[in-house]
Amino acid sequence: MIPIQNLYYLLCYAWNRLPSQGEWQHLEASTFHRPLELLTHMLLAGTRRLLQQGLPLGYAEHEEELTELRGRVLLAPTLSRDLLRQGRAVCAYDDLGPNTPFNRLLAGTLEVLGRTRHLSAALRQEVRRLRARFPEELVAAPFTRHELRAVRRLRLPGQEGFLLNICDLIYRTALPDTDTEGRTRFHDFRRDETLMAGIFERFVRNFYRLEQRRYRVLSETISWQAEAERPEDLGLLPSMITDTSLESAERKIILDTKYYAAALKPHYDRQRLIAPHLYQLFAYLQNQAPRAGQQLEGVLLYPAAAHEAYLRYTLGGFPMRVVTIDLNQPWPGIAADLLGLVA
């Protein structure tokens, strides 16, 4: 199980944000027993910064009965209520204020956290105090998948995007509490291999983007070196998209991350590498077209759990490694191991 402090680093890099030294010092001085406590701390710290800078404002449409015309007159409700004879009309107008979709979602997330019993009473109180600092006219949005998707489509940058990622992960770990109306219980997402696989992949890719300058880092689509009698048949081939490609003039590394409990699995009375993982990476290498003078190699990277591994092969003329990284060690060791992997 990844320690909470290391989980903080994984999330920061996965969301393309360098870890904050101040937050790290607070983490070292605190004891978090559940990932939800960590996420709440990160949400509180980020929201405080946002409030200090001033909540982002946006235009929201209002609909109201008015004695003076403003914006657009909505004829259907105006006529159905017989308002014209009263010198009134229903108008729709845009008003600049804090009721943006993001601000409303943030407030809704804080309200859910302020009620859950999965946080200590002191932390819930801290959440409620921060929620009370929002403008009174700001209406919290329901904490639902629909609201999250609507805000996701806005492609928010910077601090807002980072806070949205936290809200999204909190939602993905939330389950309705059938015993208590209006409350939510949360599960430990470190046990969710599918969710953690995505976090681990983005963590590794963004770590290399932010922490080294030798390689250009990207996720790329590799074209099949294939021919077909009918050109349209080529479109039926599955996509080949790398998790992480690191490229310099003289070297290209295709690094595939696999969030599995072990790099080896039992096969009869022996341990074996996981065949589909090896086949996938080999297919990437076979269909890649390196530049002149560029060495092409592959790496399969697993988090260390049951077994540690550092295996070297040459397959089809390509150097290939199968490596595990210990995510339970102190963070400086993790960073050093990742940099050493591509040195």
From TrEMBL:
InterPro entries: McrC, McrC_bac
A biological process term (GO) from this entry: DNA restriction-modification system
Transmembrane segments: none
Identification of the protein by name: 5-methylcytosine-specific restriction endonuclease system specificity protein McrC
Organism this protein belongs to: Hymenobacter oligotrophus
